[in-house]
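Re: [ENG-882] Designed sequences occasionally contain unexpected residues at chain ends

Forwarding the minimal case from QA. Structure tokens:
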């Protein structure tokens, strides 16, 4: 099975540099163009299955990437970005001043500190692991497209490569690019990371 990974296009929240997990965020003109470009880059790949985050920025990206193809898209909350609670749509510079104690605790131990009213990394990691477990039901698929978010996709790569969850920071998914992981019975290979070439 080959997993084709796509991060949603640029959003207004990306431009502002704020935390955006489940908060509504719309694709910018650049983000729309990134998704349309990916449609061209991936048009020769026949996808057997498409999984997408429930969040609109990912779903919008999926519609543009797939455009005139008929493959059905299965949305799942397991691919939603981490929820930042009270920190949604806020900048880290403001949190360092306005929520000093919680921000300092998170910076000191982000794996175990939960943003106020949000989702902890352990919970987030558990649901991404659940998505990986469900992939086993689709082992006969040849090409699976996954459209999601930076946090989800970087963690997905780390876990599939049998690395610690904290290793997600080693994998930055650029917008307007596709990445490729190959799954075999006995090992997993990261074939491509952040390609802007035709597949």
């Amino acid at each position: 099975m080959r997993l084709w990974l796509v991060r949603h296009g640029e959003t207004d929240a990306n431009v502002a540099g704020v935390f955006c997990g489940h908060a509504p965020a719309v694709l910018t003109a650049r983000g729309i163009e990134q998704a349309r470009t990916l449609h061209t880059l991936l048009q020769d790949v026949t996808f057997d299955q498409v999984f997408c985050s429930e969040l609109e920025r990912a779903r919008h990206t999926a519609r543009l990437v797939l455009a005139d193809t008929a493959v059905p898209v299965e949305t799942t909350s397991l691919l939603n970005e981490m929820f930042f609670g009270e920190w949604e749509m806020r900048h880290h510079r403001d949190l360092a001043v306005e929520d000093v104690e919680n921000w300092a605790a998170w910076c000191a131990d982000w794996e175990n500190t939960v943003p106020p009213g949000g989702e902890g990394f352990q919970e987030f990691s558990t649901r991404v692991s659940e998505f990986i477990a469900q992939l086993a039901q689709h082992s006969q698929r040849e090409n699976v497209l996954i459209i999601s978010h930076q946090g989800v996709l970087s963690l997905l790569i780390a876990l599939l490569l049998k690395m610690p969850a904290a290793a997600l920071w080693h994998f930055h998914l650029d917008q307007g690019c596709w990445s490729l992981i190959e799954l075999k019975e006995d090992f997993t290979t990261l074939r491509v990371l952040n390609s802007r070439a035709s597949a």
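QA comment: On inspection the terminal residues look reasonable. The chain has a mean pLDDT of 96. Proposing we downgrade this to a documentation issue.
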